[in-house]
Each structure stands twice: as C-alpha cells, then as structure tokens.
C-alpha cells in the first residue's frame, strides 16, 4: 500500500486524537491540523484542506463534546458534529479515501437495561446526541467507505475528563456526591487509538493481498460499530475503582468519601442517558478487535498517572 499519501487526523489536541497521533505516525505521514489551522465549523475550509492534503485515510475523532453547552449553541454543535463529517465524507469519496469516525452512546435514548446493538432504534435526548446522529447519517450518505465507532465515557491519563477531575477534587474535599444510576463502560482513549490503528492495518493488508484499491478493501468493513471497554459500571463505580487504586498508591493521602446519588439529585441542562451499555460483539466478529475490560484499562491509566508523578 503506498504511503506517500498521508493520513489526515482531526482533533489532535483531544483525548482520542492525542492518543492516535503517535500510533498513526507508525503507519506513514500524518497531517494533524489544530483547530486554528482547520476550523471544522467551516465547510468550505474543510473541502479546501482535504483537497490540498489528498489523504489516503481521514480519521475524525474531533467533535463538539460540551453536552450542556450544546443546548445553547445548537448551530455550532451541528456544524462540527453533523456538517463536518458529511463534508469530510464527500471529499473522501472523491479521493477514494476511507473515513474512520467517532460517535457516541448519546445517539440512544438511554432507556431499558440491556446493551444497545448497532441496529437498535436511536433516540437522542438532546442537541449533542442529535448532532452526532446527524453526523453518522451524513457520513453514511456521503458515498465514502466509512467505519463509525460509537463509544462511551472516554477518559485518559491527561486532558479534561471525569477521572482526572475526580482525582483532583478528591484531594481537596471531604465528601463527593457521584451519580450512581447511569450505567455504561468507561473507555480509555488509548484503546480507541489502538482500534483505529488495527483497522487501518487490516484494511491496507487486505488491499495489498487482493490487489484491490484501498476504498474497495474498506467497503466490506464499512458500517457502524460499538466500541467501548468491556463490562459495565456506573459513574460512582468508576470513581470508586480508581480512587481505590489511588489509595493503594498513596496510602498516606486522604481522599474524599464518595456518596452515591441519583441523576435527579444532580440536574444538568442536557439530559443524560441512564443506559449507555453497548454490545461490542460486531467489533470482534467483523474487525477482529476485542476491547479490554474497563477495569483492566483503568488500572493501566492509574499506573501511567503515578509513573509520571
């Protein structure tokens, strides 16, 4: 597979984009514009940028992710989460470049208690979920070969995320109230990055072995996949586990006591899905990639955090 054409990576300063950049560099040249270099709310800027770069892959983890703020900024949320994926797909289709895109558990209503599968009816509760669902639909209709990875509760050792925030606040407070009736799987950004690298290598190997073009090799894999760490917990259970690891690493440090509360006791401008469980069997079956359990990954993240102290 020729590697003279680069991989275009959006959102390089985000959690998933930051984890992706060093892995993608092992697969060839990577063009990773910052927000200042490529405004994903500007459709014409996206078209011009893609046409200039002529990537062989487009990897799009960038998104408008401020769930509550999206209720007040729907136009911006839709521009980045809905219009940008469609435009990236249209330009990718012209170039014969497959697209790897990230979506979210927020496309579902959050009802019930069984894990969602890819074919379940969607029903987003707010602007963020609705804009991400529109992005899925626009990309799928663009004509590009595309794989859409729906994930949940993304976190990492760096950046602004639930784990880092609670770790910081637990050192400052005596007690912390954490929601205990929303269910899902915390997902490590590095696991998602390894999924993307695995997928690119699998498609490119298929192209090399069959003599097919990259887009022809990608088409059989196209579709929506659920991609989150294995198992399930609540936000309270997640916090409880990483604070348990923190206490073991720092036995002299005093951490806050955790108190479970209901969603109703912690109102937010945008509704959160109470059931974010997702069934990831299709990912294993069709792409040959199994995500680790959330407990395995959080242990690695905590080890990384303490190794950097």
Brief digest:
The chain has helices spanning 15-25, 43-53, 67-70, 74-95, 127-140, 162-172, 189-210, 214-218, 235-249, 281-287, 294-307; strands at residues 7-9, 30-31, 57-60, 99-104, 146-151, 154-155, 175-179, 183-184, 187-188, 223-226, 233-234, 257-261. With 309 residues, the protein is α/β, with parallel strands linked by helices. The chain has a six-stranded parallel beta sheet with strand order 2-1-3-4-5-10, with helices on both faces. Strands 6-9 form a two-stranded parallel sheet.
Provide a descriptive summary of the structure in words:
- This protein is α/β, with parallel strands linked by helices.
- It has a single domain (7-160, 185-231, 276-291), classed as 3-Layer(aba) Sandwich (Rossmann fold).
- 44% of the residues lie in helices and 14% in strands.
- It has eleven helices and twelve strands.
- It has a six-stranded parallel beta sheet with strand order 2-1-3-4-5-10, sandwiched between helices.
- Helix 5 links the parallel strand 4 (99-104) and strand 5.
- Helix 2 packs parallel to helix 4, helix 4 (74-95) runs parallel beside helix 5 and helix 6 (162-172) packs across helix 9 (235-249).
- The chain starts with 6 loop residues before the first strand and ends with a helix.
- The model has no long low-confidence stretch (mean pLDDT 95).
């Amino acid at each position: 597979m020729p590697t003279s054409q680069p991989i275009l990576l959006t959102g390089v300063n985000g959690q998933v984009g930051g984890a992706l950049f060093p892995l993608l560099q092992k697969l060839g040249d990577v063009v990773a514009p910052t927000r200042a270099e490529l405004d994903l709310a500007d459709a014409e800027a996206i078209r011009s940028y893609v046409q200039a770069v002529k990537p062989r892959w487009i990897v799009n983890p960038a998104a408008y992710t401020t769930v509550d703020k999206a209720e007040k900024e729907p136009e911006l949320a839709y521009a980045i989460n809905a219009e940008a994926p469609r435009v990236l797909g249209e330009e990718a289709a012209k170039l014969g470049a497959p697209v790897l895109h990230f979506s979210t558990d927020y496309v579902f209503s959050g009802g019930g208690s069984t894990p969602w599968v890819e074919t379940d009816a969607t029903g987003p509760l707010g602007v963020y979920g609705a804009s991400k669902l529109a992005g899925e639909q626009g990309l799928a209709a663009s004509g590009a070969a595309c794989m859409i990875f729906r994930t949940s509760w993304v976190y990492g050792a760096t950046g602004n995320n639930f784990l880092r925030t609670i770790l910081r606040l637990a050192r400052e407070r005596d007690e912390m109230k954490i929601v205990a009736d929303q269910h899902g799987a915390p997902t490590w950004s590095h696991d998602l990055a390894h999924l993307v690298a695995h997928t690119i290598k699998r498609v490119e190997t298929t192209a090399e072995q069959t003599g097919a073009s990259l887009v022809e090799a990608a088409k059989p894999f196209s579709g929506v996949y659920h991609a989150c760490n294995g198992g399930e917990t609540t936000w309270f259970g997640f916090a409880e586990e990483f604070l348990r690891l923190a206490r073991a690493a720092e036995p002299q440090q005093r951490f806050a006591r955790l108190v479970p509360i209901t969603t109703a006791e912690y109102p937010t401008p945008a509704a959160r899905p109470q059931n974010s469980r997702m069934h990831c069997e299709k990912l294993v079956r069709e792409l040959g990639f199994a995500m680790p359990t959330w407990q395995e990954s959080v242990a690695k993240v905590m080890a990384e955090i303490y190794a950097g102290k």
